[in-house]
Amino acid sequence: MPELTMIEAINLALKQEMAADERVYVLGEDVGVDGGIFRATQGLIEEFGEDRVMDTPLAESGILGFSIGMAINGLRPVPEMQFSGFAYLGFHQIESHASRMRWRSQGRFGIPMTVRMPYGGGVRALEHHSESREAFYAHMPGVKMVVPSGPRNARSLLVAAIRDPDPVVFFEPKASYRAFREEVPEDEEVAEIGPAQIVQEGQDLTIVSWGAMSRRAREAASQLAEKDVSVELIDLTSLSPLDYPAIAKSVSRTGRCVVVQEAPLTYGPAAEIAARVGEEAFLHLKAPVARVAGPDVHMPYFAREQAYLPDAGRIVQAAEYVRQF
Amino acid sequence: MPWSKVGPKGAIPHLSILDASGEVDEELVPDLSEDQLLQGLRTMLLGRRFDERRLKLQRSGRIGTFAPVNGQEAAQLGAISAIRPQDWFIPSYRETVAGIWRGIDLADVLIADAGYNEGVSIPQDAHDLPNAVPVGTQMLQAAGIAYGARRQGKDEIAMTFFGDGATSQGDFHEAMNFASVFDCPVVFICQNNQYAISVPRSRQTRSETLAQKALAYGIDGVQVDGNDVFATFVAAQKAVASARDNSRPSLIECVTYRLEMHTTADDPGRYRDDEEVEEWREKDPIERFRNYLRKRDLLDDGGFQEMEEEVSATIDAAWKKAEKRIEELGAVAPLFDHVMSDMPAELERQKRRMQAGGSPGVPSDA
Ligand SMILES: Cc1ncc(C[n+]2csc(CCOP(=O)(O)OP(=O)(O)O)c2C)c(N)n1
């Protein structure tokens, strides 16, 4: 199996889906001739032409509204938002239309659209290029919210998203685009959207994370292993639907839970997960659920982004807190 | 033919005064003193050399990514020099030359480039907004600022800068429409540098000109040779007067070219060929202005060399100052400053927890 980076794996998924299904279209700013500013769409325009790989005018509302129309009329658009921080100009198209069309039309029109967007910090970028606002989309009824953590699940989840009959917001942790490689099968591999991945089994403590934070959770787990703390690691890969049975099952066994999110603390997905654990595993809990998150501030300019971002040290500290509670 | 007509049915006036060889239309050339002319050239040169230095600093990892101004100096200077200090400057993210004209501290620019929020340090009496990175979004604010000025009887107008790509955003159209409906004294400066990253102007719109979009909103639209500092200045002066005297907004399309990469993260070789770039180099706004000054005996090669040296020393000094400050700033991470006017108790608590080495949501007395 070839070893791919996440960006290469995303590229592979797009290429294979476009080849397999002529209804699949890619559109966005710089996705054609330039191959996408991160090169996710590299080579697509050469292979599939500019009618299916569309360099659009610079307008996020345009890209998303147009995609919704394409989806209504038989196509499977995969629009790219250059950064999640610029998707707000088109946010209303997702909230007001993509998420509601199936419901509004009483099942007549679905929106099989996958909105790809790089999110998150760690790449020394300018303002608006580093935020994690997955809560906005996970909060919306009618939309799936998928966040891969590595090359292999990025590929298999993206394929699943493109084939999904409902709109999927696909958050790509840009810090992980080229950070590491994984074996990715060349042959088709499709994930199921929803089920969490148990990355590592353990007895003492459950750590739940997603996206770029999954790497930091792993790092923390190995630091904890050195202190003889056995960690069960859960990588959600999907925030909506949320696999709370998997979380509850794990925490029912370990009795302790740390949730790691890159986003600001308040009203983030970690709060929802903590509430679910409280509902589903209350009698098994030996400590309150701890949330390791960013503070409720704007992502600082890049010199301080690591000061903002949760790291293994903070995760270990939270683990100690729930263990000693 | 300094004034000509372009656009559908020739509805859009086009202005050029200074040609590539340094010849001018004597009737239209603005009446500027020798001092003003030299100050103008210095500002453009400083902008260009500053960005060349930033590129080196970026390549050696001292600062982060930024958007070079190279090629657009005349468009920015011509426009910005038509407003007064009390008028408002509402930039996007490429306005180095306009910023220099407004008096921005180059060291501050470098401090922000190095990733420190403290580099954004706007004097209390300045009417200059910080960069707006989301493309095409600040023009509505410019219209609102202008309305605020008019309603409060303040002798101020607003001038906002953006690119050709920005004209595809709905916000751009809303801005012109609001400005028109509410008689806002605002001037919209579109720097049509032919590209939005890799996407050529022809892919943004099938309109013959960008300036003609103004007509749909009932405001004035004009196109100028944006590499001609005189044409840009004259058109801007006219637009500024119309804003100031009649609260009439206008749109100026400056036809120019980005000679460098979009930002330091971009590789223009992927979407345009060197020939095209070379053609535009022939129309270099600084060379052109310098030719004019040379022909008028206002600046000989020796004088230009002196200007180069002074500019270079200014940049050296700015970097030296910035380096020192960056070192000081490296020791602190004031994540919580300026988020709110008053820090709520919850933020205080998060701050305390982080200062103790923990997470904002985890009790630190564990
Ligand atoms: C709303 C938004 N979408 C996308 C981007 C990413 N981006 C930054 S600059 C740029 C191109 C802008 O082109 P143009 O408006 O012509 O201005 P220029 O950069 O050429 O000066 C893009 C797509 C952004 N900053 N904001």
Automatic annotation (TrEMBL), chain A:
InterPro entries the record matches: THDP-binding, Transketo_C/PFOR_II, Transketolase-like_Pyr-bd, Transketolase_C
Statement: the UniProt record of this protein carries the keyword Oxidoreductase: yes
Keyword ATP-binding recorded: no
Sorted UniProt keywords: Oxidoreductase, Thiamine pyrophosphate
Cofactor(s) for this UniProt protein: thiamine diphosphate
One MF term in the entry's GO annotations: oxidoreductase activity
UniProt superkingdom: Bacteria
Residue intervals of the Transketolase-like pyrimidine-binding domain: 4-179
Protein name: Alpha-ketoacid dehydrogenase subunit beta
Lineage, top ranks: Bacteria, Pseudomonadati, Pseudomonadota, Alphaproteobacteria, Hyphomicrobiales
From TrEMBL, chain B:
Catalytic activity, reaction form: N(6)-[(R)-lipoyl]-L-lysyl-[protein] + pyruvate + H(+) = N(6)-[(R)-S(8)-acetyldihydrolipoyl]-L-lysyl-[protein] + CO2
Keyword Oxidoreductase: yes
UniProt-listed InterPro entries: Alpha-ketoacid_DH_E1_comp, DH_E1, PdhA/BkdA, THDP-binding
Cofactor: thiamine diphosphate
GO molecular function terms noted in the UniProt entry: pyruvate dehydrogenase (acetyl-transferring) activity
Keyword terms of this UniProt record: Oxidoreductase, Pyruvate, Thiamine pyrophosphate
One GO term of the biological process aspect: branched-chain amino acid catabolic process
Any single Pfam family the record assigns to this protein: E1_dh
Subunit organization: Heterodimer of an alpha and a beta chain.
Official protein name in the record: Pyruvate dehydrogenase E1 component subunit alpha
